[in-house]
């Protein structure tokens, strides 16, 4: 098992995210991953820097830490040729430490270019074509593509790594699992659903299995709950809500009925290592082997110390059994 740290790009500016990544390497995290958003989920978070700039800076500031997008949508706000080029460049800058996490997107970030945000069936069809184009460009040479939704004309990526980046495809159900098997080298999920892992493996998928475990560390449980409720109540609403709402104000409205008790049930809140192990265990028990820890608590420095001294030794011990 590899243990990662979720860089919460919606809550921190670019310089702080780079600093956190460097600290993550120091305390023993194997990888960091960062979402590719244009907007934060809610106004209280207050940030959303450009992921490709931040991860490039992290690649320059670290030596062994693996990095990943968690995840980027290559089919609406971006053309997939741009993502293919960006990923190839970042793979080179990081000496092969980069994983391209991809997904079909959320309205929150994709509607901003004025192309609309299609229904899920059309989104998946566009996403399918986008991944075709990325793979095509990573083969080298000039390439063309004439799809129903996306086109490519005489495009070539001149700077390609010897080995293409690992591509992990975000999944939430059978149709996206099928895309992960078809195009991906692994999968990415945010829910501890064993059926996603089993479906991927049964269909022949053999790659790494990325996930995010929701934690909120603080010196007291109450402080952790308050912080997570303020900035992450939206996450309790579920993927069907998260994919469809257009702006932070809409997420604030949707999260208006989320109680602090709902946060306690989903997040590991406070300093109790056993509760953190319990939440992380939901994902490892489901079969995920790349677990990114997302700390929604108020104290990132305290969380890093907690991870290094208390949580990591327990996780390493458990994975070695």
TrEMBL record:
UniProt signal peptide: none
Keywords: Oxidoreductase
Gene Ontology molecular functions: oxidoreductase activity, acting on paired donors, with incorporation or reduction of molecular oxygen
Pfam families cross-referenced by the UniProt entry: Bac_luciferase
Annotated protein name in UniProt: TIGR03557 family F420-dependent LLM class oxidoreductase
Oxidoreductase in keyword set: yes
InterPro entries: F420-G6PD/mer, F420_G6P_DH-rel, Luciferase-like_dom, Luciferase-like_sf
EC code: 1.-.-.-
């Amino acid at each position: 098992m590899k243990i990662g740290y979720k860089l919460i790009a919606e809550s921190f500016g670019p310089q702080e995210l780079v600093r956190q990544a460097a600290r993550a390497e120091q305390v023993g995290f194997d990888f960091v991953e960062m979402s590719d958003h244009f907007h934060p989920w809610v106004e209280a978070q207050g940030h959303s820097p450009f992921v490709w700039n931040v991860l490039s800076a992290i690649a320059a500031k670290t030596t062994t830490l693996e990095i990943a997008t968690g995840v980027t949508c290559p089919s609406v706000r971006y053309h997939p040729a741009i993502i293919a080029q960006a990923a190839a460049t970042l793979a080179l800058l990081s000496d092969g430490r980069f994983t391209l996490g991809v997904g079909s997107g959320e309205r929150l970030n994709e509607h901003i270019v004025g192309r609309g945000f299609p229904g899920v069936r059309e989104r998946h069809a566009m996403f399918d074509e986008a991944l075709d184009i990325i793979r095509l460009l990573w083969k080298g040479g000039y390439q063309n593509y004439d799809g129903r939704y996306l086109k490519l004309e005489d495009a070539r990526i001149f700077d390609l790594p010897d080995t293409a980046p690992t591509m992990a495809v975000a999944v939430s159900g059978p149709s996206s699992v099928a895309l992960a098997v078809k195009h991906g080298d692994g999968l990415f999920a945010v829910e501890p659903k064993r059926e996603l892992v089993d479906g991927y493996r049964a269909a022949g998928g053999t790659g790494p299995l990325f996930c995010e475990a929701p934690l909120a560390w603080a010196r007291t449980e109450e402080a952790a709950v308050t912080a997570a409720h303020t900035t992450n109540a939206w996450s309790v609403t579920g993927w069907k809500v998260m994919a469809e709402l257009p702006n932070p104000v809409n997420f604030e409205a949707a999260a208006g009925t989320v109680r602090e008790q709902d946060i306690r049930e989903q997040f590991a809140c406070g300093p109790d290592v056993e509760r953190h192990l319990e939440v992380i265990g939901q994902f490892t028990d489901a079969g995920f082997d790349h677990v990114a820890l997302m700390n929604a608590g108020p104290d990132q420095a305290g969380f890093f110390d907690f991870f290094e001294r208390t949580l990591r030794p327990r996780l390493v011990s458990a994975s070695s059994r």
